[in-house]
């Protein structure tokens, strides 16, 4: 059965583990609300700069656009106007963060730390199949962009395409643990050994599995049906030509980068409480895969949102973005529903069943 919220006061967590010191004393909905406020604050701070919002991210591109003539250049400058970005951010951020997937019963229960070592192992093994494939979605979205991609800006399409590619390349570089160097002066010769020594997110996740006692071949298990379905839909949204570049970008950006820090925070909370309740001790490397996303995804979310906004030209585009994120979040909800059953042995309603129950209550 689902445990009730703790009344005890938990010790603060270190800043390396999580930026919210009192994380363990927050209920799941409080974590989500805190992330909602902080993400909005971070975005407003980003827009408070005296410079054009994009200039610090794409200085070369902004120089070209600022000096370009014609309607396309005006539309690009208008697309990143502060008031427009604030409006779109408020609409999309609320749409994504208010989706029920981020307070799925699995996350709520896990955040309280009421699970056995065996249940933790089952979760760790099966969620790994999701982690392994996320980066392929970013790669597929990146692969759809080239210098002749029609993005609605005519002769300046290549400028916008380059901007989007740069954002996605940063996301992909993070997944593979490599840095994006701007200044090539005084760079040492390429070190092949160092190139293979970087830690990917997959490697960080294996550190997590090692830390909870799962080693070698036991780390890799067959995909659960819902994990396979979720992965397939992610790959379709990002790479299938039946979906637009805008929908692909929304799926790998807004549908992932905003909500992930919230539920990863719930995972961290559960792991830290599990330590205390079960006399275990997880070192920093065990928690790094969860902590890193909380720290890094804020910058990712801002940059990918801004380039997404550049591709929104009509009301239909707004609908397309919401539809893309909805598909992604609904599939994630059903994936977590099956994980809940496999890990805890309890059946919770699927997304469709939950929506029908809410509609019935409204009637």
Q: How does the SSE layout of this entry go?
A:
Layout (H helix, E strand, L loop, with lengths): L27 H20 L11 H8 L4 H9 L2 H16 L7 H7 L5 H27 L13 H20 L15 H6 L3 H11 L13 H15 L5 H8 L1 H4 L2 H19 L5 H26 L5 H30 L6 H12 L1
Helix pairs in contact: 1-4, 1-13, 5-13, 6-7, 6-9, 6-10, 6-11, 6-15, 7-14, 9-14, 10-11, 10-15, 11-15, 13-14
Summarize the structure.
With 363 residues, the protein is mainly α. Helices cover 66% and strands 0% of the residues. The chain is globular and about 65 Å long.
Straight-line distance between termini: 30 Å
Beta percentage is under 5%
Q: How would you classify the helix and strand content by structural class?
A: mainly alpha
SSE sequence, one letter per element: HHHHHHHHHHHHHHHH
Question: Which regions contain 5 or more consecutive residues with pLDDT less than 50?
Answer: none
Q: Give the count of helical stretches.
A: 16
Largest sheet: none
How many beta-strand runs? 0
Mean pLDDT across residues = 87
Q: What's the alpha carbon Rg, rounded to whole Å?
A: 21 Å
Query: What is the percent of helical residues?
Result: 55-70%
Shape: globular
């Amino acid at each position: 059965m689902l445990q009730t919220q703790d009344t005890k006061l938990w010790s603060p967590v270190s800043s390396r583990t999580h930026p919210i010191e009192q994380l363990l004393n927050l209920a799941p909905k409080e974590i989500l609300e805190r992330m909602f406020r902080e993400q909005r604050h971070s975005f407003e701070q980003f827009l408070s700069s005296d410079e054009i919002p994009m200039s610090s991210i794409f200085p070369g591109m902004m120089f070209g656009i600022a000096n370009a003539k014609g309607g396309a250049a005006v539309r690009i400058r208008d697309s990143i106007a502060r008031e427009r970005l604030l409006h779109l951010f408020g609409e999309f951020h609320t749409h994504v963060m208010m989706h029920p997937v981020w307070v799925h019963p699995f996350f709520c229960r896990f955040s309280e730390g009421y699970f056995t070592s065996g249940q933790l192992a089952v979760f760790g093994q099966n969620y790994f199949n999701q982690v392994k494939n996320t980066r392929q979605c970013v790669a597929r979205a990146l692969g759809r962009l080239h210098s002749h991609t029609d993005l609605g800006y005519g002769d300046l399409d290549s400028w916008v395409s380059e901007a989007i590619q740069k954002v996605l390349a940063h996301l992909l570089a993070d997944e593979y643990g490599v840095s994006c160097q701007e200044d090539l002066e005084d760079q040492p010769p390429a070190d092949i050994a160092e190139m293979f020594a970087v830690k990917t997110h997959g490697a960080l996740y294996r550190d997590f599995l090692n830390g909870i006692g799962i080693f070698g071949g036991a780390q890799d298990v067959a995909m659960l049906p819902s994990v396979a379905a979720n992965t397939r839909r992610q790959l379709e949204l990002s790479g299938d030509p039946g979906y637009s570049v805008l929908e692909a970008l929304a799926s790998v950006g807004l549908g992932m980068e905003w909500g992930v820090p919230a539920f990863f925070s719930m995972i961290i909370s559960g792991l830290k409480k599990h330590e205390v309740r079960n006399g275990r001790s997880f070192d920093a490397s065990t928690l790094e895969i969860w902590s890193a996303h909380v720290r890094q995804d804020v910058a990712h979310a801002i940059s990918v949102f801004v380039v997404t906004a550049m591709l929104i030209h009509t009301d239909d585009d707004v609908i397309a973005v919401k539809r893309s994120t909805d598909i992604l979040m609904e599939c994630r909800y059903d994936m977590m529903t099956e994980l809940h059953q496999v890990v805890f042995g309890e059946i919770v309603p699927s997304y469709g069943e939950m929506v029908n129950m809410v509609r019935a209550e409204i009637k």
